[in-house]
């Protein structure tokens, strides 16, 4: 919303009265009807700024954003002005003339505006500054056509009536002394629902609800006849013929109307904007309440997860160790007293506790992965592979498996997470090649689909899987083979999938006619190129 200084002129190309060529728009303080925060929301809705240049400044006055219209009016590009002081982007003569006044105005008021003229190009641009929490919003409009029209109007007053009638904004004129309405344009007739003949018989107070016209009359009374008075802008209510009240943005100012001192009033209906703003505030309140509920639910879930982790890592694991220890003691001390069936039972107890202990370890690993994710770094996984393969050979020294490794496996990511994923992949390949007479496992690094993407591949000639069920492989507890054929708990590939997700990547598997399998862990360019 704006306030104008200068002699009143009527402009058919604009929706309200405009100032003369040397006019300066002063700071705005709404006097009636709405608090400042709501007024700002009404004044700066994105739809209202569609044809205007918009520049956002941070708290220090440096440019952070600008739309195409603004850059065109400033004759610059965003890279050339981004991060620079706004006044460096406007013509020097305008900066020298208006910078100090603007800084002073914004120190005490939420808004300030002025019209600047660059004499060399004969351009007229309106700058409107609005303080916001994040800095300052600057609206830029080319008003050269308005200025040219005003100069034409100064040469011929005979166009006043025509422009007044053609203006799309509701406009009416009243006598500054008697307050009787002298004229109303067709937009006002349609807006109020009052016929032209009836309009000119009314007093201006008939259009205002009780008390709403006080601010206008008080300002009018404080001004002297014939004195140049700046256009005032008010947010107030108007009353239509049917009694309906509407919220309007009302501008007014003194001028000479056929030889008598009169006041011109121009208004724009902002009721819909006001309702939309109210609805938005209500919607924000509902969203805030929902967000608080989701936050509370998330906190409860986190507390439950912490309790679960404690139970898994402490209570359950301790119980398993105790059960396994007693079973081992039973087998050691009382083996002679047990028959073959009893010793078989003890062996089954020990195997089950070991399997459950492994499951607990894998569950703990899966749950704790997000908390373990740290800084990404460039690492070579070949030494990790060597250590893992040596451990596998130590567990089953009788197996002969050919391991194919490149000289290096450079990957960028979290070292501990990648070691965990590689452990699961090699364990998986080692397990499913157990029944192969000439088993082999291959680890390689291949190119990804995206530029710069790196993909870790672990292949084997083991049992393979039915490709129709490949999507289930990376789901926790999903198994495509019997545990009697290949032991396991169905969590290894779920851990691999979680590691991929924590790196912003993905994991997948391929198999050909159930003869061998290849597993892939892709790290995207965003991870591979981080901090490089």
Number of helices: 15
Instruction: Kindly name the structural category.
Output: alpha+beta
**Percent of residues in helical segments?**
40-55%
Mean model confidence by pLDDT:
76
| Amount of beta strand | 15-25%
**Biggest pleated-sheet summary:** 5 strands, antiparallel
Q: Please report the distance between the alpha carbons of the first and last residues.
A: 48 Å
Key features of this structure:
532 residues; 5-stranded antiparallel β-sheet; 23% strand; elongated; disordered N terminus
What do these coordinates show?
The protein has 532 residues and is α+β, with helices and mostly antiparallel strands. It is 41% helix and 23% strand. The protein is built from 15 helices and 19 strands. A 5-stranded antiparallel β-sheet has the order 4-3-7-6-5, with helices on both faces. A hairpin with a 4-residue loop joins strand 5 and strand 6 (123-132). Helix 12 crosses helix 13 and helix 13 packs antiparallel against helix 14. The longest helix is centred in the middle third of the chain and has 63 residues, at 271-333. The radius of gyration is 39 Å and the shape is elongated. The two termini are 48 Å apart.
């Amino acid at each position: 919303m704006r306030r104008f200084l200068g002699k009143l002129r009527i402009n058919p190309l604009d929706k309200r009265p405009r100032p003369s060529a040397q006019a300066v728009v002063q700071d705005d303080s709404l006097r009636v009807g709405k608090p400042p925060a709501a007024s700002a929301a009404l004044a700066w809705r994105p739809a209202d700024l569609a044809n205007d240049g918009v520049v956002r400044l941070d708290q220090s006055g440096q440019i952070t954003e600008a739309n195409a219209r603004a850059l065109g009016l400033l004759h610059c590009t965003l890279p050339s002005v981004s991060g620079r002081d706004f006044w460096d982007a406007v013509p020097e003569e305008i900066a020298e003339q208006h910078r100090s006044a603007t800084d002073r105005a914004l120190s005490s008021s939420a808004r300030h505006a002025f019209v600047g003229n660059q004499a060399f190009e004969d351009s007229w641009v309106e700058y409107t500054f609005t303080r916001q929490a994040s800095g300052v919003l600057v609206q830029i409009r080319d008003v050269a056509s308005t200025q040219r029209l005003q100069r034409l109007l100064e040469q011929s007053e005979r166009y006043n009536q025509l422009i007044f009638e053609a203006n799309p904004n509701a406009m009416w004129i009243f006598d500054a002394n008697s307050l009787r309405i002298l004229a109303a344009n067709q937009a006002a007739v349609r807006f109020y629902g009052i016929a032209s003949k009836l309009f000119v018989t009314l007093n201006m107070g008939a259009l205002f609800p009780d008390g709403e016209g006080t601010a206008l009359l008080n300002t009018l009374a404080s001004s002297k006849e014939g004195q140049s008075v700046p256009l005032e802008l008010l947010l107030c209510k108007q009353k239509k013929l049917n009694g309906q009240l509407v919220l309007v943005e009302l501008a007014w100012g003194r001028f000479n109307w056929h030889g008598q001192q009169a006041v011109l009033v121009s208004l724009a209906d902002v009721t819909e904007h006001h309702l939309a703003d109210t609805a938005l505030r209500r919607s924000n309140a509902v969203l805030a309440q929902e967000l608080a509920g989701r936050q509370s639910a998330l906190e409860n879930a986190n507390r439950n997860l912490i309790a679960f982790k404690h139970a898994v890592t402490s209570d359950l694991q301790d119980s398993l160790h105790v059960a396994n220890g007693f079973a081992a003691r039973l087998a050691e001390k009382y083996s002679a007293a047990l028959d073959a069936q009893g010793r078989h039972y003890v062996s089954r107890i020990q195997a089950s506790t070991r399997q459950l202990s492994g499951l607990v370890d894998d569950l703990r690993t899966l749950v704790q992965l997000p908390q373990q994710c740290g800084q990404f770094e460039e690492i070579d996984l070949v030494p990790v592979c060597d250590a893992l393969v040596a451990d596998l050979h130590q567990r089953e020294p009788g197996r002969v498996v050919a391991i194919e490794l490149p000289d290096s496996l450079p990957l960028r990511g979290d070292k501990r997470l990648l070691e965990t994923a590689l452990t699961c992949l090699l364990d998986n390949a080692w397990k499913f090649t157990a029944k192969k007479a000439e088993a082999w496992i291959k680890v390689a690094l291949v190119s990804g689909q995206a530029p710069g993407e790196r993909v870790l591949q672990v292949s084997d000639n083991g049992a393979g899987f039915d490709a129709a069920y490949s999507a289930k492989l990376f789901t926790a507890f999903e198994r495509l083979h019997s545990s009697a054929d290949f032991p396991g708990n169905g969590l290894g590939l779920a851990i691999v999938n979680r590691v991929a997700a924590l790196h912003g990547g993905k994991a997948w598997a391929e198999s050909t006619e159930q003869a061998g399998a290849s597993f892939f862990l892709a790290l995207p360019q965003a991870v591979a190129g981080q901090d490089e």
